Amino acid sequence: MTTLPLDDGCNARDVPRAGSSSPAFHAAVVDKGYEATTSRIIHESARRRTFAIISHPDAGKTTLTEKFLLYAGKVAEAGAVKARSGRRRAVSDWMTMERQRGISITSTVLQFTYRDHVVNLLDTPGHRDFSEDTYRVLSSVDAAVMILDVAKGIEPQTLKLFEVCRARRLPVLTFLNKCDRTGRDPLALLDEIEEQIGLRATPVTWPVGTPGDFQGVIDRRSGDFIRFTRTARGASVSVEEALDQGRAASEAGPAWKAAMEECSLLDEVGASLHLESFLAGESSPLFVGSALTNFGVRHLLDAIVDLAPAPTARADSSGKVRPLDSAFSGFVFKVQANMDPAHRDHVAFVRVCSGRFERGMTVVHGATGRPFGTKHAASVFGSERDTIDLAYPGDVVGLVNASDLHIGDSFYVGEPVTYPPIPSCAPELFATVRSRDISKYKQFHRGLAQMAQEGVVQVLRDPNGDPTPVVAAVGPMQFEVLSYRLAEELGVRVELFPTGHKAARRTDRETAAKLSAWSSVRVLTRGDGALLALFESPYWLQRLEADHPDWTLDPIVSSTTFA
Length: 563
Ligand code: G4P
Hints:
Strand 25 and strand 26 (470-473) form a beta hairpin. This protein has three domains: 32-44 and 313-412, 3-Layer(aba) Sandwich (Rossmann fold), CATH 3.40.50.300; 48-306, Rossmann fold (3-Layer(aba) Sandwich), CATH 3.40.50.300; 429-547, Peptide chain release factor 3, domain III (Alpha-Beta Plaits), CATH 3.30.70. It contains 14 helices and 31 strands. Helix 5 (131-138) packs parallel to helix 6. The strands form six sheets. An eight-stranded antiparallel beta sheet has the order 18-17-23-14-15-22-19-20. An eight-stranded antiparallel beta sheet has the order 27-24-26-25-29-30-28-31. Strands 2-3-1-4-5-11-6 form a seven-stranded mixed beta sheet, with helices on both faces. By secondary structure, the protein is of the alpha+beta class. It binds guanosine-5',3'-tetraphosphate (G4P). Guanosine-5',3'-tetraphosphate (G4P) binds next to helix 2.
């Protein structure tokens, strides 16, 4: 008798129909296998929560991540993430820059289970200069958690990252951290969030107690007072006690009364949890707490599971939706080389969009149409790699040593699919770049190609004239990373000279020919073939746009303007 594996890694709609002498029997078995696989994919997708944390450096991202792992039972005692990240930094030379500058440039992906859900947490760089990187990460998640330091609110360097998030209309949960110490009036912070980001913050929990005497939170859904007791160094889960309003009033006295008054105010202005507007990216359920003492961490984690959406079917670039339970598909949202300096590897991060991924399966690389082996699939945390055998929609698979993959590349099994390209941010800074050592000519160009592939900077070239490449970036720190990595990883020291251009537009050959009459405009070609016109003066650009509405001068998708 022919036995067909029911759960054989072939993805749902592509279960092979071969190898049986009895077609009826075969069909029955295959159908059963098909159902088993599709229902498994649906089940696994439904329990995934894939989200990014965005925050200003020092707001408490690492501490909160660590506490998530504590509450998920993944670490027995808090302290592991910091130790891990310390180890990561210790082995990675170019990340020294992160340490020196107190910023995070690399992203990591962490997976853990909580209440029978699989949580995928994607880290984002905490600085506006890397908003393009943040945008790529945000294109691959289903929700975001925005952490704000209660003493600082929204900080200018991070504003752009939040705007990017808002522009993508991602559902955002907000965590007001560090409530254990003196901070700003939380009510004022709600206004600030609305004014600066355009998100209506709807507190789900509210602090009880004064700064320095943070006792717990009101859960506005039940009206209960959740009183927390600190544990030594916050290393273990904090003790929580739910008090009804009567007990709360008698035991927490004035602190309870003040918190209740503020909650009445919130009720009056209608600042209450609204699931529909949260999912539409218009309001943001807000939680208060202290990652350091663990206060409020469980509420936030519960909200990720209970409120944040599970992965849904994604549309391809033609708008056609590929069902979750169809054959495997995914796209590359990030490429990173040399995270592990010992191996100098290339990792492509793939978000699974449909079907089931099995390590070792052969998938089609959409950009080339060629088969692509997935033997080296791993979860990636800094320089650490763990083999991934299975993944479902919402999960992130790191393809190690995938040097020919680019951001935006699609992969699939069965029916071809091309996911929409990930838009790039409008560059605002431009510089010519030269190698200081003529002998390193090859490494210089190889390095530039690699940095362009990873999206560290955009690399532009003059199609007819000066062979010196021009690099374009959103923020100056991208140039620093470029110089640092070329020197550290390829031994190439470079010099950068600002070109003086201040704005760029995407153009076509016809308009480019007309622009050649203006000496202050330069038209350059990007690696993907796009023609970019660079302008020294935004004023001139505006005038040209007004005088020649028929010219092709398309804004390059900007993090603040794309929807
Ligand atoms: P980041 O990843 O966003 O950059 O922030 P991180 O978690 O590293 O936290 C930055 C600093 O803020 C750390 O202090 C951390 O202990 C502190 N912190 C985080 N959450 C809270 C909180 O809820 N309350 C208070 N009071 N502090 C908090 P540090 O002194 O820089 O480092 P460490 O010596 O404590 O590790």
